[in-house]
């Protein structure tokens, strides 16, 4: 990259809009543990028009670009090389409009998730996408990765909360599809092209978010289940028994519950002797009503012998204690080095998948420890393998991903492909699908300037 | 088209797989009122492999293709010329698999919607997409048009019920994205490209449908509302007050209710003297519970003076009588010639949109009659204009569509573009969006063989 380009970029975004030298290398290229940013410059446009001018210039000069949102992505999707410049959305954080009557919020994509959630609640409304990194992850990043999180069962992925979207293409063209309505069958749905594309097809600059009614109450239970069949029947019972109210159905395998409740940080609300533990949460009109509905459900489940034990929480602090068990990543980190995965598969295939995986691990690494938990209702399992050397990464990946073949699931439920999962993309997508993806990439980014080397080779 | 091609097609699909001559011209090119099919042949492949071979052959010979599903589309999307051949999915009607545990159904795309609904209910499950043409519309057609219908508010459009999809491209390539899971963040989401593309990017051959828990009960009310602001507040109250249960919020303007209840077919459950009438329906665990929740809601709404009258139905037959008012298309047809529209716009803009439209119509056609009703909760209005000559179609279209400019809504909420709405596509989509759509079309169908002249010029 020429000094000339830096000067031209500065002419567009002003001095405040560009960082170089140490200001760049002091930043990281991703979440905790990522290396320093090695890009030539970080460009921070103030608005879509500036960004468009920047992109046009880069296009003319064949300059590659990597977008940085909150850098909480978990697949090394935001990594740079010294050939790249970074576009950071950090100065594009406006809440453009909150339309309470239509339940939409229009935002620039640099705003973070928590701000959106809070602004919605201020209006008595609700933005349902939620994940641990809420304070840092940007709306643009959650769109680019189609983030999932804690309430997918009820509200869907980020994709399901986006009504409209504005993006800038590689050549600077602004694609404004800022629809504010649920229903818009007028030609190809362009927003869905950019959602989940991890910054390889365009830069998301604004979005119209769909807000929901704020749940006025809820109820939470922890239950113990002795076999997998009961687990899956319990999910069906909860889906129908709680009407539309079921918002979480989080399962911890014995291995996970045992580990976490074995630390000093927690007390086991139910003894750690069952095969599975499930957090069931429902959202609705009032705490009393939801409590009642959940109690009825647990009664039915006991009667049908689907559960062997249950605790219905009676206060926020009891609720938080139960979630703290599920959310205790620290307990996992203590087992480092760990091999962590985020896969999806049909619920009917889960039991045998986990059994086969355990057998495969045992055959090669007799000391291994396999820890499983996840959003069962979404078909999403987090699989953690420890007591296997870090250098055997590839062997573990092959077992975890290989076992998914032919099940109709996926090697990445939530986190995307980025750099990390690129070698395994063909485990989830056929050669014809990959060829079509490459055609689309070629059409929309003919010079290959957007997030080069990510997702597709 | 050469006789040679017919012979080659017959070699692929067999005698049963192809219709020519009168067998073609006796069929129609669309819903009631459409002209006779003018294609050279109707090819009826038995499976995806046959269809792929047909497409490959047509690609080599530059043969244009129009897909026929149930022919219930409402925008002349399935119209043929004598240059085309038709691909009909009528022999591809297998239910490939019902997986009750994962709540998925895998079907060939020629199966009709009602069959899918019934097969799901047989398993105690539920396919929520529903529309009047359920007995004839095919799953492939509902996918190609991203059909909406009666329960979008709660379950979304067809798009939201598709987990996986198989399609055949113009050159015969089979794209199999038959995911069975909710979460699959592995590269570009190809199913969303084909959903709503009206057969211009590929032919949908199979799909994995997402089934839901079957609602075990419900409740229905008809209420009267005196002003638009109360209407919109009532919607918010219903959304939060009924938890996830609200499944319909259908509004009839006075003009509609007055017309329909004025016929001999109906008795007005509430006198026809209010500004708006709303059907509120909720689905949940049991009739009693839902009845109770809805009763509470109506109580709150009365107290807040949002409604002036209400009837809570006490039986299926009372419920059916109320829906029969909403569904009485016959009453509209009696006013022929009519100009009918299906638009979407933010709820906050609806009142002034309708007022301006009325003023515009009055200025030009003093005798006009404007009748409005729709899925208010989805931002979707059906607008019917009568007592304006059929020859003034263009003038009416310009008023109806012109009024939408700048509102973030759309000229086609549910029905798509086809041939009929193509002249107005630019009212809802910018030149940059249309250019990008054309690029995608060009990439995926470089010879322009798929549904030529539909959606895009
Ligand atoms: C503690 C923690 C918990 C998490 N929990 C979950 C979870 O439950 N579910 C889940 O799905 N994920 C989870 N994640 C992953 C992460 O939070 C999400 O992927 C998040 O959506 C990324 O947002 P970001 O702004 O940090 O994006 P970044 O990390 O900055 O970028 C992610 C990718 O998107 C691209 N990108 C960013 N912004 C844009 C834009 N405006 N336009 C185009 N491309 C862009 C980047 O180039 C990169 O490829 C978690 C992460 C952490 C650290
Ligand atoms: C009485 C009535 C009520 C209706 N109510 C509603 C409603 O409430 N909501 C709503 O959204 N619509 C409604 N519609 C419209 C219509 O039912 C839907 O558009 C339906 O989804 C079309 O399905 P079909 O099989 O009849 O498709 P067709 O009419 O055969 O085809 C429609 C379009 O899709 C293409 N196509 C069909 N099958 C395929 C395939 N397998 N692959 C690729 N392209 C294909 C065709 O080429 C055409 O362009 C209604 C129609 C009627 C007649």
Sheet with the most strands: spatial strand order of chain A? 15-12-14-13-17-18-16
Rg over CA atoms of chain A: 23 Å
Mean pLDDT metric of chain A = 95
Largest sheet of chain A: 7 strands, antiparallel
Shape of chain A: globular
| Oligomer state of the chains in this structure | homodimer
Structural class of chain A: alpha+beta
The fraction of residues assigned to DSSP E strands of chain A is 15-25%
Protein name (chains A, B): Oxidoreductase
Keywords (chains A, B): FAD, Flavoprotein, Oxidoreductase
Organism (chains A, B): Marinobacterium nitratireducens
GO molecular function (chains A, B): FAD binding; oxidoreductase activity
Keywords:
33% helix, 457 residues, oxidoreductase (chains A, B), alpha+beta, homodimer, Uridine Diphospho-n-acetylenolpyruvylglucosamine Reductase, domain 3, FAD (chains A, B), five-stranded antiparallel beta sheet, FAD-linked_Oxase-like_C (chains A, B), seven-stranded antiparallel beta sheet, Vanillyl_alc_oxidase_C-sub2 (chains A, B), Uridine Diphospho-n-acetylenolpyruvylglucosamine Reductase, domain 2, binds flavin-adenine dinucleotide, 4 domains, Alpha-Beta Plaits, 18 strands, globular
């Amino acid at each position: 990259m020429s000094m000339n380009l830096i000067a031209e970029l500065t002419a567009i975004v002003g001095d405040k809009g560009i960082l170089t030298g140490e200001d760049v290398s002091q930043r990281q290229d991703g979440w905790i543990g990522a290396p320093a940013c090695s890009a030539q410059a970080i460009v921070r446009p103030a608005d879509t028009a500036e960004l468009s001018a920047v992109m046009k210039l880069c296009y003319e000069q064949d300059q590659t670009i990597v977008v940085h949102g909150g850098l909480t992505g978990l697949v090394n999707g935001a990594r740079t090389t010294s050939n790249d410049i970074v576009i950071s959305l950090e100065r594009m954080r406006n809440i453009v409009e909150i339309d309470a009557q239509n339940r939409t919020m229009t935002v620039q994509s640099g705003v973070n998730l928590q701000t959106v959630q809070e602004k919605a609640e201020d209006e008595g409304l609700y933005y349902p996408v939620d994940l641990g990194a809420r304070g840092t992850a940007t709306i643009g990043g959650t769109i680019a990765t189609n983030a999932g999180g804690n309430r997918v069962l009820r509200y869907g992925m980020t994709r399901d909360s986006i009504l409209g979207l504005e993006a800038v293409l590689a050549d600077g063209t602004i694609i404004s599809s800022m629809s504010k309505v649920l229903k818009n069958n007028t030609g190809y749905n362009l927003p869905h092209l950019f959602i989940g594309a991890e910054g390889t097809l365009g830069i998301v600059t604004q979005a119209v978010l769909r807000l929901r009614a704020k749940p006025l109450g809820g109820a939470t239970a922890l239950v113990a289940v002795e076999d997998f069949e009961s687990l899956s029947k319990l999910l069906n019972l909860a889906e129908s028994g709680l009407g539309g109210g079921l918002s979480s159905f989080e399962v911890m395998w014995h291995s996970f519950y045992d580990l976490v409740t074995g630390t000093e940080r927690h007390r086991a609300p139910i003894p750690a002797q069952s095969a599975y533990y499930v957090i069931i949460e429902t959202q609705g009109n009032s705490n009393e009503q939801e409590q009642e509905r959940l109690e009825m459900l647990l009664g039915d489940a006991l009667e049908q012998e689907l559960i062997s034990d249950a605790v219905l929480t009676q206060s926020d602090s009891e609720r938080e204690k139960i979630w703290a068990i599920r959310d205790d990543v620290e307990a996992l980190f203590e087992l480092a080095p760990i091999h962590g995965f985020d896969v999806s598969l049909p619920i009917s295939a889960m039991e045998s998948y986990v059994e086969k995986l355990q057998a495969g691990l045992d055959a090669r690494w007799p000391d291994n420890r396999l820890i499983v938990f996840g959003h069962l209702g979404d078909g999403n399992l987090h699989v953690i393998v420890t007591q296997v050397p870090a250098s055997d990464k590839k062997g573990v990946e092959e077992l975890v991903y290989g076992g998914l073949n032919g099940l109709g699931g996926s090697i990445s439920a939530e986190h995307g492909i980025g750099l990390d999962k690129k070698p395994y993309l063909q485990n989830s997508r056929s050669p014809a699908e990959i060829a079509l993806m490459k055609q689309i990439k070629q059409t929309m980014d003919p010079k290959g300037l957007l997030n080069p080397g990510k997702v597709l080779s």
